[in-house]
Amino acid sequence: MVIERRSFLTAGASALAGGGLIGPAAAAAPGLKPGGADQSAAFAKAVAAAAASGRPLQLEAGAYRVGGVAVPPGTRIEGIPGATRLVAIGPGPILRAEGGGDLALAGLTLDGGNAGMDKEQGLVMLSGLAAVDIRDCRFRATPGHALVLQRCGGLVETCAFEAVQTAIYANDSAGLAIRGNRVRGCGDNGILVHRSEKGYDGTLVVHNRIESIRADGGGLGWNGNGINVYRAGHVVVAQNVLRDCAFSFIRANSADAVEILGNSCDSAGETGIYSEFAFEGAVIAQNVVERAANGISVVNFDKGGRLATVQGNIVRSAFRRILPEGGRESYGSGIAIEADATATGNVVENCPTAGFSLGYGNYLRDVVLSGNVARQCGVGVAITVADAARGALVTGNVFSGCPGGAVVGYAWEDKATGDLTAEGTGAYPGIVVTGNSVR
To answer: Which residues form a coiled coil (predicted)?
Structure first.
């Protein structure tokens, strides 16, 4: 068969102009045109027909006013990035889907129009889908979540989220990757990776850029975070760039075997990187944390938090402030560990309270602080010497320009010793301070 060259070229140009779909031809959408008052019914019909035929639905540029559209598994919708807009009608989601199978969205702008919405709802709500593929989409202007993923796997990649309450809420994930997205101007949180109960999760949160995260909902740390991991085990948070978060850049609560690696972080109102409460296993390595109230905290042995390595991080310019619940001034420390943990190869500078904190009150067990540098900190190390606190080795560190002392013991909030690098630790069995350089 001979294909006429002009027809071939014309067909190719049309495909490129419409987004260049690879695979089955795009499905037609009769009766669906941008600019109408309420196109929900026509939109739902076009999506269902395309999914039934196994073809993607391709939308031209313009605004489509839709709301509450239930799309079937197997749906694929493509638009022109920055030009195809789905604008919410009413307070509910624009799109929702549940069940098995897969779903793909690409090149769409999902615009909530700041319509009233329950904070637990999202512009897009997906449940039980084994393989979502959401790329090059924009989510904006909603008082709720932008994207809700319940029991989903798959990929959210190179999307933009702005002026939403929370960008992504992923709960009980099953093989999910959140990669290369831009998140800016969220009212409460950036990316949430949660589970209903503690267990294996395995979500990857990598290469995202997150900034300007507020805490409009208030609280003592459950809002105001760039990335929050709760109860989800074996989550990897790596090589993200985070800036200007009301509370934490990265907060892992009761998250076992979390890895927080190679993130670049600047300006947070509370603790920059947190592994807290009932966790077992945390690796926090190669991060840069600047201008957070506290730098890195791996704490809450009183709640079962234990087992960690904190290695090769740079922490600079912590600051003191009033506690969120009010009352006394606190914070200003670089790196804190409490139980069954090592901190090695870190550099901490300009932290007014302490470069390193080992334990708190009675909560200290089997920690090693070695090969670190603390410069221009209030004290180099604040270590608890309360009666029940035992098991610490502080060796081979460099302390420079720490006016309060290199290694100083505390009993809860009160200073209890002089500089233990000079006085020795004979009165505190199980605490060894040796071989450090002080100037």
So the answer is: none
Identity (one letter) of the amino acid at 405? G
CA dihedral sign of residues 24, 28, 34, 37: negative
Q: Are 293 and 318 in contact, with CB atoms under 8 Å apart?
A: yes
Taken as a whole, the chain contains a residue count of 439
Contact between 261 and 273 under an 8 Å Cβ cutoff? The reply is no
Nearest to 78 by CA among 39, 24, 41: 24
Would you say 121 and 90 are in contact if contact means Cβ atoms under 8 Å apart? no
Nearest to 335 by CA among 393, 284, 398: 284
* Residue recorded with tokens 């014309």: 10
Q: Is 5 helix (H, G, I), strand (E, B) or coil?
A: helix
pLDDT, tens only, 323-348: 988 889 999 999 999 999 999 999 99
Tell me phi and psi for residue 334, to 5 degrees.
-85, -65
| Pairing label, strands 131-135, 102-106 | parallel
Q: How confident is the model at residue 12 (pLDDT cuts 50, 70, 90)?
A: very low
Per-residue model confidence as pLDDT tens digits over 56-105 = 999 999 999 999 999 998 999 999 999 999 999 988 899 999 998 999 99
Beta-carbon neighbour count of residue 96 at 10 Å? 18
Secondary element (H or E) of residue 330: strand 329-331
Position 20 pLDDT exceeds 50: no
Q: Which residue has the tokens 């020795």?
A: 424
- Which residues in 136-240 belong to E strands, given as ranges? 138-150, 154-157, 160-171, 176-179, 182-186, 189-200, 204-206, 209-213, 225-233, 236-238
257 Ramachandran zone, left/alpha/beta (phi>0; psi -120 to 50): left
| Spatial separation of the C-alpha atoms in residues 375 and 148, rounded to whole Å | 44
* Two structure tokens written together for 357: 């904190």
79 vs 158: CA distance, rounded Å = 15
